[in-house]
Write a structure and sequence with these properties.
mainly beta; 4-stranded antiparallel beta sheet; 15 strands; Jelly Rolls
């Protein structure tokens, strides 16, 4: 088995090699004011993907439905879901079972943005007020969104992406 430096490799899909992603070398893509993302990895054939998000204080995402499990690790700041009575802070790990529906929010009075790493399986649907999906996210669509957003800002596609 070998170790691959994933920031120098074009293959971040599932393989027999271990890889390292130097997240500080990846650019943030600003999807909307106060909502930024880095795609760290996509898994070939599994529809599993790993993101790092940075959410400004006061950010509220649309309600969404998860088709698979989600694992989240809070790197900085505070965030939670409007439907639950907990808040995650730096160092906290969050598990979300398949079928979870919730609304991510960062407190208005948070002194710093929330930075969270998510490992998402099988994607998610963003829901309108009637519970209908208006946007579907999976490994392919989130990677394309990342690349397109970077390109619009004049930033080249990171070599880490397949």
């Amino acid at each position: 088995m070998s170790v691959t430096d994933a920031t120098d490799s074009a293959d971040t899909s599932d393989s027999a090699d271990t890889s390292v992603c130097h997240t500080d070398e990846l650019p943030w893509a600003e999807l909307a004011p106060g909502i930024e993302m880095k795609v760290l990895r996509t898994g070939a054939g599994t529809d599993r993907y790993t993101l790092m998000n940075r959410f400004a204080p006061g950010t509220v995402l649309p309600k969404h439905y998860h088709h698979g499990e989600v694992h989240a690790w809070t790197i900085e700041g505070t965030w939670g879901y409007l439907e639950y009575d907990w808040s995650a802070t730096a160092g906290d790990y969050i598990y979300e079972p398949s079928g979870s529906i919730h609304t991510l929010a960062v407190p208005d009075d948070s002194p710093v943005p929330a930075v969270v790493q998510f490992v998402i399986e099988k994607g998610l649907d963003f829901l309108d007020d009637d519970g209908n999906a208006f946007h579907v996210e999976d490994a392919a669509t989130i990677t394309q969104l990342y690349v397109d957003t970077l390109a619009a800002a004049g930033i080249e596609r990171p070599a880490i992406l397949p």
